[in-house]
């Protein structure tokens, strides 16, 4: 059944000795089983110096190579993987041979691919003058260097010619890795190669004369770097965290572990197998999970009953996963990573109250939390399967109570949101239900323990009297007589069972206008009510009164009184401005526009009537013209001499009866030059004196 196929490194019989395996790659058809002591094939190794201290190592420990090169099985073996690697080492050389084990249907295709005469390996045609067969070099060779690795042959001899080698690894970066003996064509490597850095080199060799002129070639020379198992599998995508729901069926996939091996993926050097080295914790079973050795899928292997989060020592498992190359064989290199698996909770436990009945006491009139209801739930506190949702299902018709969940403790905080009244009901009974945020799984239901009763006792408190209505409103005319009755307030005591008396007092009276009868609550005036007072806002005066019961200690209620004051025409209008200036040579004799205002309200204000007091003398000096309801204009009838003049002007409002106010407008006649007004040293009160003399003369004449 052994059918080795040869990939020749030399095609001429007169090749000089090349140290290493004379044949480096073999293909054999996979038998049903390798039997003990069975000869698989013969390997020929020659270091060209006698093979002193020759030693062989096989990648599979079930095989060995004897000193004569025979590869034999040490026992009956049915599974060996896709390849065997044999490493030979003597005092003077070392090399690697690969034995590929093919299925019957793979053999023909694989050999055809490898042995393409015109393919990538560059095996030359026999008619060429230069014979440059591919060179196979194991990576990670140890010194000494340079090391002879191959030979280029010229069929027409080497006399008078030289070999020249070029390409990546020679005269291109990385430079100087390979070199050729110009005279005999020996090819050497100068340093250790790394297949993971560069897997093959495409060189060119040519023959030149002594002047450097090309005679033959160039011919392609392929250098293939043989992979060594020098890279451990690595887990690069961590951290690795998987989740599985508690109670999941056996065989549920949790996660996939994937390692990377930088070695040749077509060889067993990168053929990975996975294994679980350790599980923490080891309960309830030391083998909770299984990993597919080829795919790396982690699956559950215990029954759903054992995958119960609430009974586990911990809901978190850590698995140390090993990835081993060489198909998991003992000689393979390993890498490890930790997989963390979290058992996720599902809502398979209903919350239950720790007690069937809770007690609470609250004073009437008080709001806030009155009792915390406690529940137990075996589900995960970080999930909606644990978080409680409370509801009042009976006993709360007036919506006086609310219940909310404390997010830290999961307790139900029962609160009074509308003050309770002892006189209406001294006891309340509530029925509370608790559920989870997440729905229960189908085969679990809420039971009797998911409801509880809360008995609430209301304590009586001496409550303050209550005014009816509050606030109180009344409308009065300002300036009503002192001692007038404004209204009688009414307050009642909510503590109807205590039969207490009530007395009244003034609490806040900003203007000091009011008093109250302490017994019957009659409010009267002690001063004139003035709508124009600064204590009145928007025609409304506000005062506060107290109603005090006879309890021990006494309780107080506050009532607010709003008095809307109606306006009375009790304010005379005022005139503005009261000073005006004009030039003695002014062309425009319109002196000033006057305005009037009144503190009263309409209709006791505008329209205003403007009038000049009667002017005496031979001629009139000014007049006043009404502009609108609130303004009038004073106009000179002629230019006046520089002096001060006082003009009496009367303003009358529209009230019933109307009120009049007379105001003197002071008019200064000044000298004006170059836009500057000089009002100094005017004849004092010129017009007033003239008017007095004229008046006396008139009386004398009469």
From TrEMBL:
- Protein function: Cadherins are calcium-dependent cell adhesion proteins. They preferentially interact with themselves in a homophilic manner in connecting cells; cadherins may thus contribute to the sorting of heterogeneous cell types. May act as a negative regulator of neural cell growth.
Can you say where in the cell this protein is located? Cell membrane; Cytoplasm
Top-level taxon in the UniProt lineage: Eukaryota
**Which keywords fit this entry according to its UniProt record?**
Calcium, Cell adhesion, Cell membrane, Cleavage on pair of basic residues, Cytoplasm, Glycoprotein, GPI-anchor, Lipoprotein, Membrane, Metal-binding, Repeat, Signal
What is an annotated GO biological process for this record, any one? adherens junction organization
Kindly state one GO CC term assigned in the UniProt record.
cytoplasm
Quick one: where is this thing mainly located?
membrane
Q: What is this protein called?
A: Cadherin-13
Q: Which InterPro entries match?
A: Cadherin (IPR039808), Cadherin-like_dom (IPR002126), Cadherin-like_sf (IPR015919), Cadherin_CS (IPR020894), Cadherin_pro_dom (IPR014868)
Q: How does it sit in the membrane?
A: Lipid-anchor; GPI-anchor
* Cadherin domain ranges (all copies): 161-235, 236-353, 354-467, 468-575, 574-685
Subunit details: By contrast to classical cadherins, homodimerization in trans is not mediated by cadherin EC1 domain strand-swapping, but instead through a homophilic adhesive interface which joins two elongated EC1-EC2 domains through a region near their Ca2+-binding sites to form a tetrahedral, X-like shape.
**Entry-linked CDD domains:** Cadherin_repeat (cd11304)
- Organism, by scientific name, is Toxostoma redivivum
Q: GO terms for molecular function, please?
A: beta-catenin binding; cadherin binding; calcium ion binding
């Amino acid at each position: 059944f052994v059918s080795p196929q040869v990939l020749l490194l030399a095609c001429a019989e007169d090749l000089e000795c090349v140290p290493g395996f004379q044949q480096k790659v073999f293909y054999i058809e996979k038998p049903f089983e390798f039997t003990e002591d069975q000869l698989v094939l013969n390997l020929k190794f020659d270091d060209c110096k006698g093979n002193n201290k020759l030693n062989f190592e096989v990648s599979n420990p079930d095989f060995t190579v004897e000193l004569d090169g025979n590869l034999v099985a040490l026992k009956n073996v049915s599974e060996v993987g896709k390849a065997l690697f044999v490493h030979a080492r003597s005092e003077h050389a070392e090399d690697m041979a690969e034995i590929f084990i093919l299925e019957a249907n793979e053999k023909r295709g694989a050999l055809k691919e490898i042995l393409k005469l015109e393919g990538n390996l560059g095996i030359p045609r026999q008619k060429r003058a230069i014979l440059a067969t591919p060179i196979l070099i194991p990576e990670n060779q140890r010194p000494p260097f340079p090391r002879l690795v191959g030979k280029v042959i010229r069929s027409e001899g080497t006399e008078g010619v030289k070999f020249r080698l070029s390409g990546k690894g020679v005269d291109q970066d990385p430079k100087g890795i390979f070199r050729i003996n110009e005279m005999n064509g020996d090819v050497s490597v100068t340093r250790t190669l790394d297949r993971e850095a560069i897997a093959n080199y495409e060189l060119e060799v040519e023959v030149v004369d002594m002047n450097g002129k090309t005679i033959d070639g160039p011919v392609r020379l392929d250098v293939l770097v043989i992979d060594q198992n020098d890279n451990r599998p690595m887990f690069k995508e961590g951290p690795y965290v998987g989740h599985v729901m508690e109670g999941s069926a056996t065989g549920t996939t949790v996660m996939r572990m994937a390692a990377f091996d930088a070695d040749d993926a077509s060889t067993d050097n990168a053929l990975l197998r996975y294994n679980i080295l350790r599980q923490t914790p080891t309960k309830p079973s030391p083998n909770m999970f299984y990993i597919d050795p080829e795919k790396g899928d982690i699956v559950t292997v215990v029954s759903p009953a054992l995958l119960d989060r609430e009974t586990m020592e911990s809901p978190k498992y850590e698995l140390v996963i090993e990835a081993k190359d060489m198909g998991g064989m003992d000689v393979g290199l390993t890498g490890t990573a930790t997989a963390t698996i979290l058992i996720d909770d599902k809502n398979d436990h209903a919350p239950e109250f720790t007690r069937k009945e809770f007690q609470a006491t609250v004073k009437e009139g008080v709001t806030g939390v009155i009792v915390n209801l406690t529940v137990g739930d075996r589900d995960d506190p970080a999930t909606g399967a644990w978080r409680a949702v409370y509801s009042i299902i009976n006993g709360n018709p007036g919506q006086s109570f609310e219940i909310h969940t404390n997010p830290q403790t999961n307790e139900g905080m029962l609160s009074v949101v509308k003050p309770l009244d002892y006189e209406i009901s001294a006891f309340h009974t509530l029925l509370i239900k608790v559920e989870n945020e997440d729905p229960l799984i189908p085969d679990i239901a809420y039971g009797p323990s998911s409801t509880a009763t809360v008995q609430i006792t209301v304590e009586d408190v001496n409550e303050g009297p209550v005014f009816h209505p509050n606030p109180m409103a009344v409308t009065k005319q300002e300036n009503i007589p002192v001692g007038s009755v404004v209204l009688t307030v009414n307050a009642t005591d909510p503590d109807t069972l205590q039969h207490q008396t009530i007395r009244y007092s003034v609490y806040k009276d900003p203007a000091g206008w009011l008093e109250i009868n302490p017994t019957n609550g009659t409010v009267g005036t002690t001063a004139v009510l003035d709508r124009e007072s600064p204590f009145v806002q928007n025609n409304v005066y506000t005062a506060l009164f107290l109603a005090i019961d006879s309890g021990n200690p006494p309780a107080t209620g506050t009532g607010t009184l709003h008095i809307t004051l109606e306006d009375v025409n009790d304010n005379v209008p005022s005139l503005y401005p009261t000073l005006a200036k004009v030039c003695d040579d002014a062309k425009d004799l319109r002196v000033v526009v006057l305005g009037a205002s009144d503190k009263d309200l309409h209709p006791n204000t505008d329209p205003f009537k403007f009038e000049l007091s009667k002017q005496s003398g031979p001629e009139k000096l000014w007049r006043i013209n009404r502009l609108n309801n609130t303004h009038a204009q004073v106009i000179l009838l002629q230019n006046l001499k520089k002096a001060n003049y006082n003009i009496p002007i009367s303003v009358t409002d529209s009230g019933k009866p109307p009120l009049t106010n007379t105001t003197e407008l002071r008019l200064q006649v000044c000298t004006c030059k170059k836009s500057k007004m000089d009002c100094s040293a005017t004849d004092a009160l010129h017009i007033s004196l003239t008017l007095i003399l004229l008046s006396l003369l008139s009386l004398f004449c009469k």
